[in-house]
Structures are given as structure tokens and as C-alpha cells.
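Notes from the 1:1 (GR / supervisor)

We went over the backlog. Supervisor wanted to see one worked example end to end before approving the batch request, so GR pasted a single chain during the call. The sequence is below; no edits were made to it. Supervisor asked that the structure be written out right there so they could see what the output format looks like.
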Amino acid sequence: MKNIILEDFNNKKEMLNQFKDRIENLLVDLLNENNIVIHQLSSRIKDFENLEKTIDGKQINYTCLNDITDLVGLRIITYHENEVVVIADLIRKEFKEDVLNLRNKRILESNEFGFKSIQLICSLNDMKTAYIEYSPYKDIKCEIQICSILQHTWAEIEPIFGYKEQTVMPEVSSINFNRLAVLSETADKEFDRIIKGELTKHEKEILRFIKEESQNVELNQTNLNYLILTNEVFSKASDIISKNTKATLYRDSEQDGNIKRFNLFKIKTIKELEDSLIKYEKEYLAFVNELTKDMSYEKLSIGLCMFYFQHFLAAKSENVGLVEKYLDYDGEPIGYGSDTAYTLIEIYRSSKNINI
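Structure output shown during the call:
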């Protein structure tokens, strides 16, 4: 039976890779739809050597390839611990979960320390597999692991100690190991407390100020970062960028260059920026689509939506001199090429006939 399973694996390797890509794209869409920004989403298919070890090492009587639940594996790394459960709940709603193979490493005994994550065994739900493009993957399962960035860091460090069981450690090493584990877990919880407490309160105050007095709110790094995450037009642009480039979007708080370049377009307040987004929404989204349609990246800053809005405003002028001034504004050149100004204008002209 082992040889049959291994042969089947070799025959279906391409299909498993396609399944992996489809699951990854579905997860990216799911996260974007729920405005969740993560640190990283990675994926892999099991290699031949590890598949052999799985078949030989488990006390399970595998009868076919599809009995193996982690042929395709994905890992979602969040910035904060509280997002792990939120994402797991979203995945349970979107996919069919194999509860018999559920593994929840977040539940540890009081005297246990180490890597805590949620691992889900999932397959496509019946609604998805009813479509022709998903039907070949009906019986394939994948393992989706969700952890915070600190939990991931611990998982990478822990094997360095070389002890699978803490009980075989020297006593002094065991004490120090436990201390590190506790510090890691405490840091995760403190980040959550800060995000839920102090920062949430600060964001609510910013939101109130923006809503009530946007004409008086000057552009600064904090306000721009908040607008990137909450503005509907920017959200649509980010969806287009993520979909076209297949990239996972991450938070980037550095907006100094964006603030300076808005001066070129006489945009100095949040209200002026919001009014401009409303006025040019369709043209801007069509421009973003045309600009990114042939791009491919693994990871991109969520702030690109604002950066590309400035590209759009410059290109919309169809003035090569102005675009060149924009690209080299305030002594902070954007590193493209000598023909970039012409290229941006051509992209704008091509996008005028596109409806988004």
C-alpha cells in the first residue's frame, strides 16, 4: 500500500501544487475582506522523503493518498495573539473542518511551555467544489496553522535546544528554558493589552476627530495610517493590489514621504484627501488595476494604496515635467527609471477605458 500511495503522490504533485495556490489565494481574499493585516502567509506541499516518514511513522493504516491530512500545509503568522482565534473562526466558516483531526496547541498543561498555535485540518466546502475550477480538489485536505509572530519565533528557536522533552534537560537549563517561554508568552499578552487598550482608545479619538473636524485635521503619519485602514476607496485599491500581485499585505507605519508629496497636489488636510478620493475613485481604481496587473510579489506594504494614489494624481496631469518633479520631489527620488514619467502617463491613458 505504501508504494501505491507514493506513486499516487508523484502523479498528483502538480495538482497538489495547484490546490495549495488556490487555498492560499482564498485565505488572502478572506483576510482582506475582513481587514486583517498579517505578518506572513506561507505554504508548501509535503516532500517525498517526509511523506515516507509519515506513512512509516504513524500508527495509522493509510489506505490512500487522501487519508494523509497534511499533504498541503499553510502557515498564517499574525502580528498579535488575539488575531489567531479570530482568523481560525473565519477559516472554520469558509472551509470544511475535519474535527476528528483537530489539533489545538494553544491548550497546554499548567506546567507546559512552548509553541502554542491553532492547527486546522480543512478541505473546500461543498459550495466551492460545486464549481468546475474547484471540483478536482474535493477530497484533498490541508493543514492550516495559525500563530502570532512571537509564537512563530519561539517555534524557530525551541529546536535549537535539541531537547524534544523538557524532562531530559539539565535542571539549570530547564529553569532558564521555562523563564524564556514565560517571557515570550507574557510579551504576546502585553502586546494584546496595549493594542486592545491604549491604542484602541487613541484610534477612537482619531476617528472621532477625523469624522467631526476633518477639514482641520492636517496630514500626519498617524492620521494617514488610520485612513489607509479605514477608507473605503483605499480598501478597494488594496484588494486590487493584493488580487493582481498575489501578495500578502502588511502594515507599514512609515508615511513621511507620502505626506511631503501630497503638498505637490495641494492636499494638506484629511478632508481634502477624502474629497479627492471620492472625486477620482473610478479613475484611480482603474489606474491601480492597470499598474499592477502584471506584477507578482510575495509581500507588499498596505500603504501602497496611498503611494499609488499619488502616482495617479501625477500621471493624471499628463504633464511629463510635473510627473518628473513628483518622482524626484523634495530630494527623495522614487527609484524607477529614466522613462518612468512616460510610463506612468501611458498607464493612466490605458486605464481610462477600464471599468472597475
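Supervisor's comment: Residues 217-351 form one domain.
Batch request approved.
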